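Run: sequence + heme C -> complex structure.
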Amino acid sequence: MGKFLLGVIIGLILLPLVVYVYFAKGIAPVATAAPSMPFEKMFASMALHARLDREVPKTVPIQPDEANLTAGAQVYKEHCAVCHGVPGAPQTAIAKGMFPVPPKLMEGKGVTDDEPGETYWKVSGGIRMTGMPGFSTSLSTTQMWQVSLVCANADKLPAAAKEKLVAADLSQVPPKAETTK
Ligand code: HEC
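>> structure
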């Protein structure tokens, strides 16, 4: 009985109190340069993967042909390159200052091993509290699929699509005034 009561006291009072003090007293990391919170990565990735399992579209409505990949590369250059980079260019100041740091999507493995549907889901809805924006209100469904196919095929893009990325000067990427729906 004594042990049971102790368990209840720890569970109901002590633990919430410790969590409260951790946040209320400013012990929790806030700056992007600060290290992760205990269990932050674990819970964030658990929540993301549970959601992905339920919601990722299983079929891709467009073909990964040259026209779609070239159009997707243009979308990538305008909306993604500043954070996720282009081949051969150094990481931008914006990307360097983020937490978590945006992964390179056009060099190395990127997300070439993810289903395009998973990337589409992330592009459409964004990833909360990471800086990864959701584009569902600023890009059309087709544009989001096109750029998702570019990410999925980053290691085998046709020359026309590659050209758009290689030519991208990230300091010149204009914030686009409006995007066609
Ligand atoms: C303002 C910076 C920013 C922009 C712009 C941005 N992203 Fe991201 N993106 C991030 C960050 C930060 C992450 C890492 C999230 C995480 O660690 O969970 C991320 C994650 C991702 C992931 C998941 C990567 C993985 O390894 O699972 C994909 C895919 C992605 N972004 C695609 C895109 C595409 C496509 C665009 C353009 C339409 C884009 N992002 C624009 C910051 C950005």
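>> summary
The CA atoms of residues 23 and 142 lie 42 Å apart. The pocket of heme C is lined by residues 79-80, 82-84, 98, 100, 102-103, 111, 119, 122-123, 127, 130-133, 135, 147, 151 (CB under 6 Å).
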